[in-house]
Amino acid sequence: MDASRRDFTLMAGAALAAGAAKAAGTSPSSARAPYPADAWHQRMKRIVHVNFNERDPEGFDVAAWADYLASCKAQMTYLSGTNVVAFYPTALPDLPVSAWLNGRDLFGECVKAAKARGIRVMARFSIDIAKSALAEKHPAWFCRTEDGALVRRSLVGAPDDPSASSEFAPTCQFSDYMTDFVPRLWNEVLARYPVDGIYTNGWPSADAVICYCSECRKIGDPKSRTYQEAFLKRAVELWRGYEALVAKANPALIFTGNLGGGFRGGNLDLSALAATAPWFMADNQGRGGMGAPAWDASQQTRIGKAIVGDRPVTNITAGYEISGDIRWRNVTGNRAEVLSRMHQTLAAGGVVHYHWLGFQQGFHEDRRWQKVGRELLAWQAEHDRHFHNLRSIANVALVVSQRTNRLDQAPAGTDPLDALQGMYQLLTEARIAFDVIMETDLRAEVLAKYKLLVLPNIALMSDGEARAVAAFAAGGGSVLATFETGLYDEKGGERSEFALAGLFGMRRIGRRESYGRGRTDARVPFPGSAAVQRIEVRHPIVAGFEDAGWIQGSSCRVPIAVEGAQILTHVAQYPWYPTEGVYSRQPHTAFPTVAVHEWPGGGRQVYFAGDVEAGYWRSGAGDQGDLVLNALRWQLGDSAPISVQGDGLIETYGWESEAGYALHLVNHTQPGFRATASRGAVPLGAQRVRMVLADARPVKATLLRSGKPLTVKQRGSTVRLIVQGLSDYEVVALERS
After folding, report:
1. What confidence category does residue 158 fall into, taking pLDDT thresholds of 50, 70 and 90?
2. How many CB atoms lie within 10 A of CB 471?
3. Between 141 and which of 13, 22, 177, 620 could a Cys-Cys bridge form, CB atoms 3.0 to 4.6 Å apart?
4. Which pLDDT score, from 0 to 100, does residue 391 have?
């Protein structure tokens, strides 16, 4: 072991112990890690980032690049170091230098220009990848296939696809590339340039990287849980070592990596890394994939805030086009989609990270993206004080379980995310302001601010988490849960009874059932007909169904028995063809599909035995959606702190800010709200707003996007106002007068 690798190993060991002690006893919602609230990286709201490509040094105009960043009022930028190809004259023999550099120090020129304009610089490295030609000298650096070949670095296509390249290959996390080469590279950069920190793009990932190199074969099957645990342990060791390396160079510098993953998460639990990260980077860049919801960027920001609490969440918005499964990485994207993603990020309390690739492509070939970013970010900078939030006003919490998404064995033809996506859509349709919290953060001090806790098929739940939910209900809180919530422990082991059976006044009497042909085609998960629910007793949760004896049921359910009256009962699936056979063979049963239980303390508890919200996501069936919405409204009563009445599909956020209060309205009313990239939202008419503030001090109101003043009617802590029209995004700023 050479000196540099030995030094790094020693630092990593010491930092690992210190990091464990530092993170002990903290939780996502309470931890700010070791960073003061007024640190520059805790106050930033605007990041603009142009990635270099290898040919950029040929004609890179540093002044034009820096002037654009300054015009956007950028507070920070990522600057390509990098380990893949150097944009500065390196002394490292194993670091390829851009063939177009010709003696320039492009990295150094850009650092100087950014600093002259007051813009912070994070040196960006993609340590997950390197030039494949280096494999001849360093074969152990790279990931291997089962037959020992280099893994292709390509996200698309066959070998003859021009968008696929064998010029690059992924590096193995277990190799000395990470412990020898990377530290030497960073020490060189930190010694030469006054950067503010180091960021690793692409590492660590939310999923363990599949590798069959000799070191990885010693660990075991790279798809096994044993390998995933070893991968996570190694990632933590490296992260701590990198933190220590950067701090040794300058205690004022920071290190962070890529912690993305979204609602689904991956097969790694990155909470140990998130505990000390200065911010969470949500790195999905655009609404990729067919059928992704318009509020994808909102979800990315929300999950980040649920993980790191009051630290920043930086959400990347690509200026280029991402539409469905296709990317045009050097062509400007749909203006409406790009703006909507930045609007969502701001509304959810995040930091806008605006991104482009290539100087020639973005400053000569296509400059349209520049205006989009400049206008939005300059506007945000003008009103910056209204975007520093102190707390959310919401009194509803939607629980996200990446553990369930990772380990749950969902019925064939379904996806573990169906329930979460369906509930998210219903809350948005109802304009209910809500927060996202993790299932691992169900603590009394976190839950105390909420009136309603929503558990969309949180199948895996520990005993401690179940006790926390029960305690919340015992204190007067309401809980809405569905399908298999609490039917499995945190490791996926099946319980004989629901963990929350007593809370809802019900019990399990059979194993789950699912209907349909078990197709795994995500677009047609359950061809044919599903079950029906018969209305046995009138109740607020079946309001609006007065002309119906039965309503749509779900495709999956758990058989239950309930205490008290049966409101809805199960009518099993029956033939949908031929027409002569389309009738129920058993139109009346004693199998309830909902348990409703009101506690003396005021809490209203509702459990749906079926996956009704998941069914709504898959089908859009109105009865399923209305049933869940009825339950939500009944449980909340008149306690909602924010009410927005009017037409359209609007996502609603309410914050108490440093300047007073801010109500964010994001308009998702568009034909493609669950399709591909947006072409534009449908303008909406008047929206009538009621907000309950923390105190009765008088406020004045302004519309920040339109710049118009507002007339406020205030009685005590309740204010009422009318937003006369909503195009794509508006912020109602309420300042204490």
Report:
1. very low
2. 14
3. 177
4. 96
Residue 737: which residues within 8 A CB-CB, separation 6 or more? 697, 698, 699, 700
* Residue 346 φ then ψ, to 5°: -65, -45
| The two structure tokens encoding residue 35 | 């960073």
Report the b/e string of 287-306 with b at 16+ CB within 10 A.
Answer: bbeeebbbbbbbbbbbbbbb
**Any bridge partners for residue 190, and if so which?**
none
Question: Rounded distance, CA 53 to CA 357, Å?
Answer: 7
Strand pairing report for 718-723 and 326-332: unpaired
Q: How many CB atoms lie within 10 A of CB 510?
A: 11
At the topology level, CATH places domain 642-736 in Immunoglobulin-like (2.60.40)
Q: What does the pLDDT read at residue 623?
A: 97
Of 667, 664, 632, 622, give the one whose Cα is nearest residue 649: 667
CA distance 181 to 141: 10
Kind of pairing, strands 650-657 and 532-535? unpaired
Kindly state the average pLDDT of the residues 646-654: 97
Assigned token pair, 665: 């309205």
Cis amide linkage into residue 592, ω under 30° from 0: no
What the block records as the tokens of 671 is 């034909």
The DSSP symbol for 23 reads H
How far from 706 is each of 293, 724, 726, 727, CA to CA, in Å? 26, 11, 10, 10
pTM of the model: 0.94
- Residues 579 and 529: beta-carbon distance below 8 Å: no
For residue range 604-622, what is the model confidence (pLDDT) as tens digits? 999 999 999 999 999 999 9
Q: Of 1.20.1260.10, 1.10.1060.10, 3.40.50.880, 3.30.420.40, which CATH number belongs to 394-636?
A: 3.40.50.880
CATH 3.10.20.340 fits 43-127+176-205+235-382, yes or no: no
**143 and 169 in contact (C-beta within 8 Å)?**
yes
Rg (Cα) of the chain, in Å, rounded?
27
Provide the 10 A C-beta neighbour count for residue 215: 15
- What one-letter code names the amino acid at 58? E
Which of 538, 543, 533 has the alpha carbon at shortest distance from 592? 533
Phi-psi region of 419 (alpha: psi -120 to 50; beta: other; left: phi over 0): alpha
